[in-house]
């Protein structure tokens, strides 16, 4: 069958998903929602660097709700609080549209009861489902790590390490003001409750730790935060400006799933401006270690297809692939919030 798709938001990831929808014969783009006025009323081909595709962007939510779409790819900019987009998502569900988020939302079992009930009610009203898909969250630990444990006789611990290169981020407001790069070490407490980036990512990635614990039948006592910010060892020139020697150039996000005061699940994400504090090569996207019988070590990277000359990064292409391949699963799922399936493989379109 052909699935009718709405693209919600058209930033870098939204446009990547849209191109994927347009290029697949089993998907039909029927609507596009934009937040501002600049793209409103334009054929979406104009901001995809393509010929007109016959779909006009709108910032009128009622126009989107009137469409008979099977699924909405929700790619709005992630912002605190974690549930900041729930009002729009509930309206889409109530209108009978399944929703896939690219920003977490992979394990509803970890949500506060009030949030889960809100999504359940909206889903039942419209007979529609809500699911998360993407890379991390969405694939690395929820799918890949859990699947790799299937060859173990016993598992005593899991560590997933991810490296995110940040030196090409261009917004000074985002890099310096929001994330705290370039600040004095100790000026920001990355484990404090009042820091907005931490509050958002804690909600998103503690859910990931809870998901893998649930999949492996591990009952956690708690999830601890162990974030840290490290200084540059030399002056750095980056796309957003400069970071002086001694100022923050490296941010380690670290979440620990604890059992009997021991970390049995470790999720570690390094946001770095260079590789000076890294234990692994900055070329490694993910490293996964499953301690057990046998111990499993996985290294996963992404590279462009032969002859690829596009501007879109391979990571963005991978997020879009995960989202598009999840469409049949969210359409077929029971109404309400749905945990991301263990596998959503690519299938050749009929």
Put the structure in a nutshell.
Pfam families: DAP_DH_C, DapB_N. The protein has 350 residues and is of the alpha/beta class.
Structure explained in plain terms:
With 350 residues, the chain is of the alpha/beta class. The protein has helices spanning 12-23, 61-65, 86-94, 113-126, 140-148, 172-178, 196-215, 314-332, and strands at 3-8, 27-33, 57-58, 71-74, 98-101, 129-132, 154-165, 222-225, 228-231, 236-238, 241-243, 248-259, 262-272, 286-293, 296-300, 336-338. The strands form three sheets. The chain has a seven-stranded parallel sheet with strand order 3-2-1-4-5-6-16, sandwiched between helices. The radius of gyration is 21 Å and the shape is globular. Residues 9-74 form the Dihydrodipicolinate reductase N-terminal domain.
Task: Let me know the number of strands.
Answer: 16
Number of helical elements: 8
Which superfamily, in CATH terms, is the homologous superfamily of the largest domain? NAD(P)-binding Rossmann-like Domain
| Helix/strand order | EHEEHEHEHEHEHHEEEEEEEEHE
- Ranges with pLDDT <50 over ≥5 residues? none
Helix and strand composition category: alpha/beta
What amount of the residues lies in strands?
25-35%
């Amino acid at each position: 069958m052909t699935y009718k798709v709405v693209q919600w938001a058209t930033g870098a990831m939204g446009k990547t998903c849209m191109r994927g929808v347009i290029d697949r014969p089993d998907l039909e783009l029927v609507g596009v929602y934009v937040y501002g006025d600049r793209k409103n009323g334009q054929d979406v081909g104009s901001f995809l660097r393509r010929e007109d595709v016959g779909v006009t962007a709108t910032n009128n939510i009622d126009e989107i709700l009137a469409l008979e779409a099977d699924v909405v790819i929700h790619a709005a900019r992630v912002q605190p609080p974690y549930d900041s987009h729930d009002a729009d998502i509930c309206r889409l569900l109530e209108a009978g549209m399944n929703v896939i988020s690219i920003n977490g939302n992979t394990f509803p079992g970890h949500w506060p009861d009030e949030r889960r009930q809100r999504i359940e009610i909206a889903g039942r009203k419209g007979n529609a489902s809500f699911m998360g898909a993407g890379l991390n969250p969405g694939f690395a630990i929820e799918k890949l790590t859990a699947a790799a444990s299937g060859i173990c006789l016993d598992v005593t611990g899991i560590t997933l390490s991810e490296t995110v290169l940040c030196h090409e981020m261009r917004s000074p407001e985002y890099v310096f003001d929001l994330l705290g790069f370039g600040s004095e070490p100790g000026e920001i407490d990355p484990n404090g409750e009042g820091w907005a980036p931490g509050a958002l990512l804690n909600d998103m990635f503690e859910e990931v730790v809870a998901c893998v614990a649930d999949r492996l039948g591990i009952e956690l006592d708690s999830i601890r935060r162990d974030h840290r910010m490290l200084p540059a060892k030399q002056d750095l020139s980056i796309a957003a400006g400069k970071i002086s020697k001694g100022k923050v150039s490296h941010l380690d996000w670290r979440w620990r799933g604890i059992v009997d005061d021991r970390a049995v699940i470790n999720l570690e994400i390094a946001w770095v401006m260079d590789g000076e504090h890294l234990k692994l090569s900055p070329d490694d996207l993910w490293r996964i270690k499953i301690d057990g019988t046998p111990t499993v070590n996985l290294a996963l990277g992404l590279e462009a297809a032969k002859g690829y000359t596009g501007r879109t990064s391979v990571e963005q292409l991978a997020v879009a692939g995960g989202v598009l391949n999840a469409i049949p699963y969210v359409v077929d799922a029971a109404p309400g919030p749905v945990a991301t399936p263990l596998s959503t493989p690519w299938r050749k379109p009929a």
